[in-house]
Amino acid sequence: MAMAREVRNPVAEPNGRKMSESAVRSTVERPWGRFTVIDAGPNYQVKQLEVDPGRRLSLQYHNYRAEHWVVVQGLARVTIGAEIKDVARNESVFVPPKTAHRLENPGSEPLRIIEVQTGTYLGEDDIVRLADDFGRPVGNSGAD
């Protein structure tokens, strides 16, 4: 019984509010694919990102958070600052705050990434978009 109660306990959102278990596991569709929040707590958030073949996220940066990406399926083409490199399954990269970055799937199968965000603010509105394939506005955009 105690274990069942633990599972139902809400986890903290980065801003200190409580997030329900169903909110943590909800999947959000984007033009490039989708993401699912796996876990969240004070100053961290864990997501699974799935990037569709041939798609890429905006070129963007975040003011308040760093991101750690681990490739679990497929091949990622990653831009961090001026560097572009391919990252294979079981490899990882680190994206510091205020660093332009982009994630791309150059392959023919879905790309799956585990993303760990750390920082003082983790809201979806901490995205400053620099370029976008889907016609979304550049600048402080609110969500990718």
Automatic annotation (TrEMBL):
Residues 1-25 are annotated as: Disordered. One of its GO terms (molecular function) is mannose-1-phosphate guanylyltransferase (GTP) activity. One of its GO terms (biological process) is GDP-mannose biosynthetic process. It comes from the Bacteria. InterPro entries: Man6P_isomerase-2_C, Mannose-6P_isomerase_type2, RmlC-like_jellyroll, RmlC_Cupin_sf. Residues 20-132 form the Mannose-6-phosphate isomerase type II C-terminal domain. Pfam families: MannoseP_isomer (PF01050). This is Cupin domain-containing protein.
